Amino acid sequence: MRIFVTGASGWIGSAVVPELIDAGHRVVGLARSGASAAALTAAGAEVVRGTVDDLDVLRDTAAASDGVIHLAFKHDIAFSGDFQGAAEADRRAVDAFGDALAGTGRPFVIASGVVGLAPGRVTTERDRAEADVSPASLREATAEAALALASRGVRSSVVRLSPTCHGEGDNGFMAALVATARDKGVSGYLGDGANRWPAVHRLDAARLFRLAVEKAPAGSVLHGVAEEGIRLRDIAEVIGRHLGVPVASVAPEAAAGHFTWLVGFLGVDAAASSALTRELLDWEPVHPGLVEDLDKGHYFRAPAATA
């Protein structure tokens, strides 16, 4: 298949592209910069220049493709305080893809998240977010719009990713936790640290996206979860051991100053299952788990010195 991938040079996309090419697919990647275009070309993909705001580019490229994997999201504005703006841009992109693919039976796979969907228990593929203005609800509304495209003749599916998509080169939550512990001289957690985060290696996530575009039934909700939940205290202890710093609970009144933007995520208990996904697509994660990956040491290499 000729598959159009947005976010193709990002953390997950840069693993999805070779996964698709190695399986015999042709990839067209959306690139908003010259650096992204060069990276995609080097990976063996075709390039179309544009951003998720260029709706005509999205429609035209999707219409000329056999399937779409939509990974792009405006994380820059989302994590600087305008999550709603990022979610609204994402919804416009999904609507544009829907217009291009309606009635074709072609696959359309989008990325979403598992956090915040079922507080206090293990989230499954059957769970849906309550309608409100929380980040989880805003992203889930877009995911539901994508799933609804099944009624318009699109083989749509949603891959809900773990908040921790780890691997060498990661600049996400794990890298931020390590940087915070190094900077503060303590590897911290909130409360008793018993709250859990699901995790998946990005190469396992990439394989799931390939399987989804190849064979997920229309309207499928899939979970990119290799490990149901790792306690935050356990993560903090591994980080503390590698950095040689103490491990401690951070007082609530000091949490915002200590963790900065991470504080809104660290207290969340977000355990999630992928049992239905594994059964449906015969997906079985094979890459290292989070603690094993942390123990490989690549998260703890000292930052390069600046002149």
Automatic annotation (TrEMBL):
A GO MF term: aldehyde dehydrogenase (NAD+) activity
GO cellular component, as recorded: cytoplasm
InterPro entries per the UniProt record, alphabetical: Epimerase_deHydtase, NAD(P)-bd_dom_sf, NAD(P)-dependent_oxidoreduct
Domain NAD-dependent epimerase/dehydratase: 3-216
Entry superkingdom: Bacteria
PANTHER family: NAD(P)-BINDING DOMAIN-CONTAINING PROTEIN-RELATED (PTHR48079:SF6), PROTEIN YEEZ (PTHR48079)
Name assigned to this protein: Oxidoreductase
Species per Swiss-Prot/TrEMBL record: Streptomyces minutiscleroticus
